[in-house]
Amino acid sequence: MELGQSELFSPYRFIGVVTGSVAPSVRSVFVGKKSTCSVLCPIDNVILQYNGSNLRPIGSSDPVVGKITAVASSSSCVFAAHNKTISALPFCRNITDSIDVPEDVKMMELIGEQIVAVDTKSEIHVIGTSPDLHPILTIENGENFQISAIIHPSTYLNKIVIGSTTGLLRVVNFKTGKIIHEFEDCFESAVTFLAQTTALDILAIGLESGKILLYNLKLGSVLHMFQHDSRITCITFRDDGEPTMVTADCHGSLAVWDLETRELIGKITDVHSDTINRLHFIPGEPIMISASHDNSLRVWIFDSADSMPRELVRLDGHSLDATNVRFINKNHLLSAGLDGSVRKYDVTSLSMRNNMGKSAIEKTKSKNPSDEGHGVLEIVAGWQREANWNNVFCRHKNTTKITTWQTRNNTSGDFVINHDRFSNNAKFVDANASALCLSSCGNFVFVGYSTGHIDQFNTQSGRLIHSYTHSHKKSQKKSKTPRRAPRQDSNDTPIIPSKITSLTVDQRGQELMSTDENGFVTFWNLSTRQITAKLFKKNSKLGMSSKCPTNSLVAVVSILENGKESVVLIDSVCHKIVREFEKVGKSVNALTFSADGRWLLVADNEAYIRVYDVPTAHMIDIVMLSKPCISMSFNETGEFLATIHKEERAVYVWANKAVFLPYVNIRALDPDFLPTRATSNDGPQVCIDDDEDSIIDEEIRAMRELQIDSTSITFSGLPLSRWANLPDFAKIKERNKAVLSVKKIKQAPFFLSAIPTLEGFDFQSDDLQLDPALSDKLISDKRNMLELESSFTSLLKSTKCEEDLVNAFRTLQSMTLSAIDFQIRSLDLESVSLLLRMLLVVLKSRKQFELVEAYLLVTLKLHRILTRSIITTATLQLI
């Protein structure tokens, strides 16, 4: 995720993404006699590295410029193709070398010390890797031969076999650039995959029609054919002595074949929910690694008697786009997606993750491919009842059912919440849940529907507590049998005649606030279950809302008839609108408060996140992203902000600079201000330095030089020890003098006639009489020493313009406290006048105010007689 310049947030990490659409690379690194296997998964512009045995994250590479389109690896280096560039990343960390290619690379093969890369125009580029990346050869294939697969057959020196979309095969010598042979056989279907079998001269060819051919290169004939149900995407072979072939198709199914009997051993359907793009057997072991577009990695072991694999390790994330994120405590968050699953992550660890499973709705949905499913749209969670019963509730797409979950056991709940009206009444067949909230005590969950109904359920049992309809409008007495469910009245007409867009319960648990599409804000007393107040937003309909965690403010999206949107802040205690932010973008996708309630974050559909300061109603920051944010959440301590973006499966975590840095440049921005995306081609730069404190100090120093507003007075930001004690520095020196007088040394060296003094030792004899001429010369020399100018005085006298005066002020500012006191004391009449002029110039700029005040006070105390003749009436008016 690309981030524009932001004063408040810095990228921390992304979580929830295991692998991407680009096929990963598997490499073995030998350490002594042992070998370790690692899986390299390119995701967007980075490469994640996993341990091949347990799929534990090992590390990630530095970001590259552009999206990675292909990756190849050896035991010593990793090569990544991105943005018409091929880069070398030793140890899968930082980029050490790069080379440009004419077009984007779509597939890449590492053969010895040479890279064979195929670009989008089906041109083959041969690139040497030693000692650095350098071009060797470019081979053109013509427009009629579009390369779709590539393989280097074993023992074929400097040869590659390429397959095309028309079903043709060619053998090319990538050292000479010549086409050695083109096979006459045309397979009448596009070649999708080429793999080397355990036998020499024989390749496995996967076709788009679902056929797998065992092809003899020397004879140019098909040895045998296997048939799959759909397009072949991967083929691999066991090399531990068992004649087994495993194939995968575009629907995520695995087929295991016996090469001796040439029969199908078995098939596992829906292993992955999307295309499998990588199958790899670990050399010499019955262990296979599979990767898929559904954002998952799996390790399989072939140890059963029927030669079928069983799953050993699984690492996965959301198979479809993520839709909602919610922090449940300081470091843990929940994310939900269109695949119907809820997952729990630790933002401080890459390996701590839990799959809480899929919802009961998603498990029982129809297998019809046209069924869109019921993905999760909203999560509400509370920690109050986490140890007792269900504390997480999810609202789903196109259904009135609410699913329950437990974060204590990281599992789904035992029941699904749903009102009987939606099952028994045909007129509610198109109804769906449109709003959801949890009470502050954690005992009740409130559900709003597109029909205007509002229902209250018990979180422990899922029992219906109350429906806010006309049939219950006058019932104020509590039921004597609280365990019995309310009677279903025939008059189930909702009080609110339009779609409920949001629900909020105050922190006291005494009042429920609902908003609807007609522009009404309704407040319900939860004790009497009656309407206590109503607000109306004229000519607008209300949308989503967000409750402040520290006070009674609720942010609500208001949509005018012309489509213009704004965000209003409602005080749920006073029942009044207290703020309105009009310029929040064209369409608001998400909004949330900071942990302390001081900031309001609003995300729109143009990939901007605006940050507003609630007390001043000013926009203080705007974050520009590459994709629109659709959900975001702050953790309870305000350290991290988690965001989810459109068409993304990852959860992006941003660090709050205001928490981690001692100084952040917060200033009011114009409401119409929009940042511009950087156009630099230098790419991302990563600074790794052992002395991080010095880097932070430089950033703080640069921030302090900035002036928030030209009409406001700005301080220097220097510590108090640099200027606060300057007016009383003489008193401090006097106070720090020794109380006892210096005593004479009892025994002095016999060869020195020295008398100890405060200045050192006096080696002059008491009876020494100086010559009068010599005495006059000494007095003259001392007078000349007193009349010498200091360096700062000379600098002042050499100034010719205001810029020189500002530079002189910076020089004085950089001195120590005692040096500043000495420099001001040694000024003469002319220099005092220049000093006052220097302070006046700095004062006009409204910067460094406390330093100017301290220096002026010292000058007036030390040179009060001189300043009387210098400061005129006109100068006083300027000051």
UniProtKB/TrEMBL annotation:
Region (Disordered): 469-497
Pfam families the UniProt entry points to: Beta-prop_WDR36-Utp21_1st, Beta-prop_WDR36-Utp21_2nd, Utp21
Ranges of residues in domain WDR36/Utp21 C-terminal: 707-864
GO cellular component terms, semicolon-separated: Pwp2p-containing subcomplex of 90S preribosome; small-subunit processome
Leader sequence residues: none
Domain WDR36/Utp21 N-terminal, first and last residues per copy: 39-303
Keywords: WD repeat
InterPro entries, per database record: WD40/YVTN_repeat-like_dom_sf, WD40_repeat_dom_sf, WD40_rpt, WDR36-Utp21_N, WDR36/Utp21_C
Name of the protein in its database record: WD_REPEATS_REGION domain-containing protein
Biological source species: Caenorhabditis japonica
Taxonomic path: Eukaryota, Metazoa, Ecdysozoa, Nematoda, Chromadorea
